[in-house]
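Appendix B. Chain record.
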Amino acid sequence: MSKIACINTKDIHILDHIAPLAHILDAPLYIEDKKNFDLVKTYYHDVNIIFQSPIEMFSLVKNYEILIENTFWMTADFYKLLNNNVKLVFCPHGNSDKGFIEKNLMTFYKNQHAVLLYGNQMVDALKKLDVFDRLQAYTLIGNYRLKYYLKFKEFLDKKVLNLLKNFNKKNKTILYAPTWKDLENSTSFFDLYPKLIKSLPKNYNLIIKLHPLLEERTTKEFYQIYEERKDDNVFYLSSCPLIYPILNQTDIYLGDFSSVGYDFLYFQKPMFFLDKKNRDPKNDSLALHNCGRQIPKENWDNIFEFIEKNESDSFKKVQKKYFDYAFADISLSTLKKNVLNLI
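Structure tokens predicted for this chain:
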């Protein structure tokens, strides 16, 4: 019996989490969506991918000791009956500042056979929600995606530079990364997006990374306001799953509660946060930990003026400190040992 296999069903935005993990663990990546299969071949050329549609879970649970997914295992007990030795492991697809208002977002962690956690920030968040002590098993894995990016930096940077070839290199590049409309209604997209694309000045490049669930879960509301601006200084990141090489070309981060904000901490550059609900300061968030500048709702109409006025503010020391808090310093070899020890 083989040790580990990784799985992806249909979610494009999860590929950047599962493909690097499969490479690091030297595990096959089973994919049942043809588009995702082609994307992995294009951007993660070193990963051993197997196209199988639909993924035959019955055969997988018999042939592997660990199966890893980036979405929750909702039928763990059923699969456990098929093979008492298999462990169904959940790996998060990013850090999250969500889950404190609607706690059900985090309680699924305790239903997994094991979970992979980035570092102390995740541990503390689960403790605050009274979930950590109820985990069946866990291990820390650090920032494996960053390490993967640095390993293949030249190849991945070339891919992204080709996508952004129309950008004016003299402009500063802003990444807008709104989250989806979850149970906490965390997204800034529906309030900000129309203003953003209409007011974008020529002296900024703008990368727009829309969460796929914006369209999937709120389709009617999404298309009531969504239109693509066709200028050379705008790029819609929809069919490219890469994150860190995109962030490497980004000068300024603009987001609400997307986990991409945690990834951007590594670069120690200006960060701006959008929170229409003014969350309780007792809850964790990048904005409340002063990793960047919060943009008041009354400034959303002239957001680029606000950014230009405040982008020189430095939060580097806090960003470095919070990055180290969020991601444990774990080597790739130790990560692999930690995961194997779950067997």
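Further analysis of this model is presented in Appendix C.
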